[in-house]
Amino acid sequence: MTATTRPDLASAPDGTAAQTIPSTGADGTAVGPGRAPGPSDHAADAGSRLRWWRRPGAAVTGCSVLVAVSVAGHGLLPRLPGRLSSLAETLMPWSALAVPVLVAAALLRRAPVAAAVALVVPAVAWLTVFGGALADKTSPSGDLTLVSHNVNQANPDPGGTVRSLLAAGADVLALEELSPATAPAYEQALAEAYPYHFYQGTVGLWSVHPLRDARAVPIMPWTRAMRATVDAPGGRLAVYVAHLPSVRVGPAGFTAGARDEALGLLAAEVRAEPVRRVVVMGDLNGSTDDRALRPLTDRLVSAQAAAGAGFGFTWPARLPAVRIDQILLGGVRAASAWTLPATASDHLPVAARIHLSPDPAP
């Protein structure tokens, strides 16, 4: 006869059977080896899953992924109230500063995995989007040198500003923020180097080559944009000089409505331009990363992005943080682009050297 042993009995030292009584938890559920999971176990598992974000480094990891997605897909971000999307895109190059902050936060939490994520994920996204801007794409060739400068109507040293601009050796020079008091002084100081010029309102153009068809471009109630044809040796070049309205950051958000409206009018003029080669120069009060500038940047190429080295920030001149002064090209190719040394203005001058291909046969 075969003996059987009950699973709830164990042998005592004297060989007699001893009963093992399972212990119970506070909720009356048995705990210990060999038992089936009870309701409290499922609740604990669910709670642990819901509390993953409370683990060390979880918040840092989430922020790292958010930064990376925002940088890599900033063009797909929805239009936010107060034009905050435009503000975020204008400052997007500075998102790299989030990397050391996130890494430090992860290390303080003693979360090495989160620190690695914070170091790698946002950095890869940033380099994918902006890494090309860091490379030196300049070349020594080119046919024509362009310079644009917001000279600041309150400039305390117009003479020094002119000397600095003359040293750049520009073939075509655009000035913004002229005033009735300062425009004649610039006209006189530049007359010897630039026999051809046209200015009206707050903008003007000086050239070593003949100008024709010069006129104001109505983008605001007063003149802040102009257009002229430069008869360059390589062919005609339509040049627009513009100073778009300023933007402000306040409680209502990014107040750029006047700028965007003027930009739309300028873009319409550029679209209707009959000359194949087009240059838009000036203080556009916006970066080329800003979606609001797409009416222009969808058709024209930034000289700095195509042939510069670095971001070429221009404002404020003492510690440049954004590039709001632009040279945009259509039908011509940039050979190099750069910023010039500071003058007494609050903006840095911008320069570009371009290739002029022959006009197509009629």
TrEMBL record:
Q: Which residues form a coiled coil?
A: none
Bilayer-spanning residue ranges: 57-76, 91-108, 115-135
The family database entries (InterPro entries) matched by this protein are listed as: Endo/exonu/phosph_ase_sf (IPR036691), Endo/exonuclease/phosphatase (IPR005135)
Query: What GO molecular-function term can you cite, just one?
Result: catalytic activity
Q: Name the UniProt key words of this record, in alphabetical order.
A: Membrane, Transmembrane, Transmembrane helix
Tell me the segments the record calls region Disordered.
1-46
- Name this polypeptide is given: Membrane protein
Query: Entry's Pfam families?
Result: Exo_endo_phos (PF03372)
The lineage's top-level taxon is: Bacteria
Q: Where is the Endonuclease/exonuclease/phosphatase domain?
A: 148-347
Species of origin reads Streptomyces gardneri
